[in-house]
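Technical annex B. To support the medicinal chemistry partners, we prepared a structural model of the target in complex with heme C, based solely on the information shown next.
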Amino acid sequence: MSGSWLSKARLAATVSAALTCLAAQAPLAQPAQDSGAGAAPVAPAPAGVENAQRAWQNWTLNCQGCHRLDGSGSDATAPGIAGTVAKFLLVPGGREYLIRVPGVATSPLSDADLAEVMNWMLWRFDKEHLPASFQPYTAAEIAPLRARPLRLEASQMRSSLLHQAEAAAAK
Ligand code: HEC
C-alpha cells in the first residue's frame, strides 16, 4: 500500500537525518587537534583559563602583532616567548615582571581577560618550564601590578632576570 510505503520512506528520512546530525556532531566531541603554530588551543584548558578559545582570540587580537602567532617573536618587534617565558617564574621578581612589561600592563584587556591570556600563554608556549607549584594569575593579583608598568627599565630588568632564570633552569 502506498500509505505504508510513505510512512517507511518518512521513517528512513528521519533516521538518515538523525545519522547525518550525529555524524556532524562527532568531530566536535573529539578534543581539538593541535596542528602547530597559531592553531586554536587544544582541550582541556589549563588552570586559570576559563575559556581557552577566548584566550587564544585575545592573544591573536592583542599580542601576536608583536610576538607572532606562535610566540616566536622577531628582532624588529618583540622577543620570542616560546620555550622561554615560563623561566621567568623560576626567579624572584619574574612573576611580577611578566605583568609589568609594557605590552602586558598597558594592553586594552580587562584584568580578568589579561590574567586568562597570561595563564594560557605560559601553558601554550612554555609548559615545559612551568613550575609544578605555579599558581595561575588572577585579576586581583594583576590589577596592582599593571598599574605600575615598566618603562625604560624593562629591557635592563629583562636581561638581568633572564640571566638568573637561565641559570636556574639549567640546574
Ligand atoms: C607593541 C608590541 C608588543 C605588544 C602588542 C605586546 N608585547 Fe609583549 N613584549 C614586547 C616587547 C618589546 C617585550 C620585551 C620587554 C620590553 O622591552 O618591553 C615584551 C615582553 C613580553 C613578556 C615578557 C617576556 C620576555 O621575554 O621579556 C611577556 C610575557 C609578554 N610580552 C606578553 C605579551 C602579551 C600577553 C601581550 C598581549 C596582551 C603582549 N605581550 C603584547 C612587545 C609587545
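Notes passed to the chemistry partners:
The first helix runs from residue 2 to 29.
The chain has two domains: 1-34, 52-170.
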